[in-house]
# Entry
Amino acid sequence: MSDKIDQKRREFVSVAGLAAAATVVAPGVFLQATAEAEPRSEAVTGKVRYGMLIDTNKCVDGCTDCVTACERENGLDLLKMPEGADPEEWDRQRPRWIRKVKVKDRLTGKVTTLPMMCQHCEFPPCQDVCPTGASFRRADGIVMVDRHICIGCRYCMMACPYKARSFIHEDIDEKLTVAPRGKGCVESCNLCVHRRDNGETTTACQEACKEGAILFGDLNDPNSEISQALRQQNNTELRADLKLNTGVRYRGI
Amino acid sequence: MQDMFRFGTRLLVAATALLLVQTASAAQGSRSVIEGSKAYGLDSCVEPTPLMRKKHYAFLKHDRDITVHQGIRTVKHSLAGCVDCHAAKDDTGKYVPVTDEGQFCQSCHEYAGVELPCFSCHSATPTQATKAGD
Amino acid sequence: MKKIHYREWGIESPRYWGILAILGVLLAVGGLAALYMEHNGHWVTGMNNQIVWGVPHVFAIFLIVAASGALNIAAFSSVFGKEIHKSLGRLSAMLAMSLLVGGLLVLVLDLGQPTRLIVAMTTYNFKSIFAWNIFLYVGFLVIVAVYLFTMMERKANKYYPTAGLVAFVWRLILTTGTGSIFGFIVARQGYDAAIMAPMFIIMSFAYGMAIYLLMLMFTFKLEGRPLGEKLLGRLKNLLGIFAAAVFYFVLVYHLTNLYGTENHEYEAFILRDGGVYTALFWIGWILLGLLVPMGIVFHPALGKTHGGIIAASLLVVLGGFVAMYVIVIGGQSFPMAMFPDKVIIESGFYDGVNGQALHYVPSIWEFLLGLGGVAVALAATLVGVRVLKLLPMSLEDEIVDPRQG
# Structure
């Protein structure tokens, strides 16, 4: 009995994006709680679709806080340049899950700066082309790689319109428990999936952004902050012409 | 198909490994867990020891798919759980990788002559306050 | 048509083993290069997170495309009833299988996890053209082996036309699959074109014929078996026609691209501003790989000399490699249009700032691996003709086709 209640509570917690909420919260009220929720014990479902809204008007030129936070969270900062490698070549080979890009409008010349990462498509080209099914979309909308069956063919990297993926070019000595990583497989942003499964409400990049330019949440919950924000103002899907229905949206470009 | 193929090879490997493991543990006394690890203070693993010796890879493989694809982090047989419990601490209080010479995973796999590829990607020490199933 | 007798390739043992030894060295070096890359990881190669497919893929795709093309010579006789080609069929099938094995080996050894090949063979995502290709390649080997058997075994002769038809259809599907690896990539400007598949088929005709001609002349000349000038003339004319067809497809591909404004930047890159890729396209692919060999084979005097035919074939092969380089690496080198209405002026991940080409310098290891694959293909063919009765004793014109003699 108490197990059942627990289950319900957990579902509610993850759906509403609230952690450790013992009290009943009115819908639409968003609580920023420090996560001390329990790990997921039931399979993820399509009731939730995680996504992000990035407000490029708030994104500061030259700031790389989101990048730094992502690399720390996912152990990318633990990578060392292989001995004997050319630093310039190596820089092109080392993995990045998120990066800052600055673009200039061809007509107006308006300059915009923004973070780019996996756009978590509803119809991911990387999933379509993967020969083994290692590249997959989890029921809750997270596009990720099952590196147990990734053969390292890099076809997904050829197919991704956002250049979101990285191949691991060297042996990895140090890695985090939450972010396994090894030579010869492909990986990319997974919306901090270990945080999702531990009931936390944020991603590392969102947490790190002092300007609040990154908003993470459940796109399927009409009352979530991200859904409300998406309704209020226009947003852009990168390469909308490909009709991939991305889970990451931008404002101000 | 894959399973069928693997079943045969695994049966062979498992049988050989089991034989070797039993000889090994007989030689070392019945306890092969490492002093200084959480496991050392426990009576049994998540399954009875003989079953774990025989089948741990199958348990791990089964549950890894559940964790990766369904996001369930409370699986009984999680590799992070293995590491969390079996990694010993040295004198300075630092974790020793389970893949180091003489440590829990390494010593047995070395003895049985079976590859141990998990840790080319997974951490061989608990890297933070580990939550089950990470 | 007189009865054609087939015999094992009978050059003296020292020469035979000498040739195999040279190929063996190439093969061993390729294997060591693969081990080296595998042991260290791909950082020792020129490949990176921008150019993810490099020289190994150029070799692999070329060999696979050439493999299906090499089968055409056999298919012409069984499908289109060209009796003149019948005597050429066995070598054609052997060469096709060998080239495919060589190409696949390179492809597999470049994987990040080559030891997981069993995963690729047992876990399928049927939406992936790559997964289909695994079936197509394995199927090709089986079908061509059966086809070869129906040619060689008298009792199985009655199935020869059927096997030939199946093999021919299968090879068309296979090359369509290989071409579609690129054709299906909507993200990249240079690849997103359905013409890729038929273009790959016509390329396979040309490259397969060139390699076949070289192999035929090499084996026959070395042993001193007679090779009719009329037959050679027909084959080299076919080579010229195929080269012209490739030229036509390249023309159509770029002209249709030029019509659409969205492709102008890509076309400018390949045709005008792409530096090494532009040079390779015009000089390597178009001039040396297509126009010069066409000029040679259709030249009234040059086209009749063996030297001319050999040179033309070698040039078509070279042009084929260059073509793959331009398609595979040039295609990736052109920055993706992530923001079609904007210019990227700064990036933390080499996104082609200000439209600049992405950087790739191939490493020696990649070439050695590729050459290893070529060595495997050649060695397998030569072992095949040595131990099996694949080569006719004589291909003199009056034997092959008395009416023409």
Summary: The longest strand of chain A covers residues 99-105. Chain A has one domain: 47-251.
